[in-house]
Amino acid sequence: MNWITNYVRPTINSLFSRREVPENLWTKCGECGTMLFHRELKDNLNVCTTCDHHMAITPRDRFAALFDGGIFTEVKVPEPVADPLHFRDQKKYPERMKAAQKTTGEKDAMLVAQGEIARTPIIAVGQDFSFMGGSMGMYVGNALLAAAERAVELKRPLVLFSAAGGARMQEGILSLMQMPRTTVAVEMLREAGLPYVVVLTHPTTGGVTASYAMLGDVQIAEPNALICFAGPRVIEQTIREKLPEGFQRAEYLLDHGMLDRVTHRKNMRDELTTVLRMLMKQPPAVRGDLPPPDPVAKPATPTEKAAPK
């Protein structure tokens, strides 16, 4: 009996037991509720294959799809003071930072990179909403200044992908001071005659919208992105009125002249290539990465034909 209990039964159970499925293999769409396989979702740039809902995407994954061959070089950002106000709510600020860094694998909420898209050299900046809501602190201000300085140095356009809940409360007034600092960074690009293109993703709110996110030469947004200063719920509670359908969403803002384009994530690379090359007064990019065709020879005029050799 002990032999059957201790050996035979566990062996049979191990053969027929159901294997556990890892929890991170499937992602539920927040819009339509469809369960999406992680590889299929990643291949589709974190866009739902059922309802076309644009989910959050990290700057590294975005840059891997944006730059030629997924190759880019990070631009170093100066480190700010770790905890200038010694702020504490339910946790100490350094503890929250360490937790966010461990979860995302990033130093802070903004990544700066340089590379090429369709053979067009650019500087790109991406905000990570998964890092404390993409909140704007001193590091974000340093990052945008570093990006602008590198763009001026290399004479390249700057492309910003915004995604933020606003200023970082743990840094108080120092966070709000990044609004004029980043405005100065944008002005550096304008004085150098370099394009500054902003891609607003879901959500872009608060002090980020009130500063560098709305100062682009061209304003592009992803579909159905929430773009605002104060959220719709706060506005409804303040004015005690029902807001229009789709209020503060990308399509609504496009219809009311606040945006230039609303572009699908899968088409963003081609859109940016076209816009940047136009602003930089460069010829259109060659599809398929082929060499440009030879110029067509003009037909000889009758005078040229009759001229003696």
Model description:
- This protein has 309 residues and is an alpha/beta fold.
- The chain folds into two domains: 34 residues, no CATH class; 231 residues, 2-enoyl-CoA Hydratase, Chain A, domain 1.
- The protein contains twelve helices and nine strands.
- The strands form two sheets. A seven-stranded mixed β-sheet has the order 3-4-5-6-7-8-9, with helices on both faces. A two-stranded antiparallel sheet has the order 1-2.
- Helix 5 links the parallel strand 5 and strand 6.
- Helix 5 packs parallel to helix 7.
- The longest helix has 17 residues.
- The radius of gyration is 25 Å and the shape is globular.
- The model has no long low-confidence stretch (mean pLDDT 89).
